Amino acid sequence: MPLAEENCLCSDPPLTLPVVIIGNGPSGICLSYLLSGYRPYLSPDGLHPNPILHSKLEEARQLSIPEQDLEYLSEGLEGRSSNPVAVLFDTLLHPNADFGYDYPPVLQWKLEEEHYIPHIVLGKGPPGGAWHDMEGSILTLSLGDWMELPGLKFKDWVSGKRRNIKSDRATPAEVAAYYKHYVKIMGIQRNFVDNTYVTSVARPYRDQEQADSHDSENGAPEEPCIDKENGEPMVKKNWEVHGYRRAADGSHQPFCLFAETVVLATGTFDEPARLEVPGEYLPFVSHSIAEFEEAVGKGRLNGAVDPVLIVGAGLTAADAILCAHNNNIPVIHVFRRRVNDPSLIFKQLPKKLYPEYHKVYHMMCTQLSTVASNLYPRYTSYPEHFVHSFKPDMKVVLQSNSGLKKVLKISMALVLIGSHPNLFFLKEQGRSLGHLPNQPITCKSNPVEIDPYTYESSKEPNLFALGPLVGDNFIRFLKGGALAITRCLELRQKKRHQLVESGSDDGVS
């Protein structure tokens, strides 16, 4: 039976749960959907355009996808994720999407409640995570149907919400409402605990005698090790999760849970990335586009003002440039890369779907042509430059890759160079979990190192991660992590049941 939240958070002694998911954005929602017993099968009329993959699917048509060999199915597939199961699940849900095709999914979903794995999903706000905090009117990067989760087509849902559908792309407000509705209509709301803040996740040790007693009671052996100080055998306990829930009156209600498995689904929007240069903490330097939009809305940047400095070459920086351009605010745009760098996000977006971002890219290229630069007289770009420092007198010092420096007067600085996850609740902020030892976890340069077919941490047993934490920044691909984790946990559950059954057959308690 599903777990009632009041029993989970307020029980004494603390309840031990099979799975605790930290984060209630699309990653956590999708994983909860699969752990609740929803199973994808090859649909009766499903015909995948990749003949090799379709042949593999036909070999085990009677089995659900989580029951099959994901490594075998993923072999040879290519896509915009470095995680093979993410590419597999995406091509099953959106066949050949990157080639511009709109093929229907080849899967059908069945609810098989016998596959339910007890779990709870802890989130700071309502289901949807950071989508509830984003600007509500801008268009998202992805097509609306790429934002959807299994079992509920976004187009069908949004058609009853919009008066007229002019674009296949959705607004963050629509996406946030969709995720919140999804949790309710799929019947998985009982697994979610909102307004919950996790403050600590750790695995303490206890001595072998205590562990043996615990194992005989629960039938779940724990991980042994040796105490380095005295050589005594020690065992890692289950994960211990501490935090608090914010009540309606603003008070904090502490809680403690134990979990056999913890899944990190926190996303990467917690902490804005910083330049770490002198003067970055001066009051005119901001790391939030919302603060810029507020300044524009209140008219603080109207009239003959010094330019706004915008640092970064991603889509958030592009949104800020568009906002400034539409309000006749002069812009100085600084970014480290060449304008023809193939890794720029603008080069990966079709012009027809993303005309506003291609307009920004055209502006970025104007400094190469005197004629073209006349098109945007209030915009100046500095490719292959970086910020050396900010000065208290509202000036910025730029430096080129060749070492030349330039001092410019500005009215405001916007540093929009991405964001990092905040894993403060883990030991050393989770630095030991990444590909680069002892470095902060980042979605691009240092994601959590995982087994590619289970999404279990390579450094910490029974700790899983998915979504941006493992480099899957597009919602299309985070669903593969949910599939891999579900399969792994199901296999372990089956193995545990087999051990219990064989033990009882032998007369062992």
TrEMBL record:
Biased composition (Basic and acidic residues): 207-217
InterPro entries named among the record's database cross-references: FAD/NAD-bd_sf, OSGIN1/2
GO molecular function per UniProt: growth factor activity
Region feature Disordered, mapped onto this chain: 207-232
Gene Ontology biological process terms, A to Z: negative regulation of cell growth
PANTHER family linked: OXIDATIVE STRESS-INDUCED GROWTH INHIBITOR 2 (PTHR15192:SF4), PROTEIN CBG05349 (PTHR15192)
Protein name: Oxidative stress-induced growth inhibitor 2
The organism of origin for this protein: Pyxicephalus adspersus (African bullfrog)
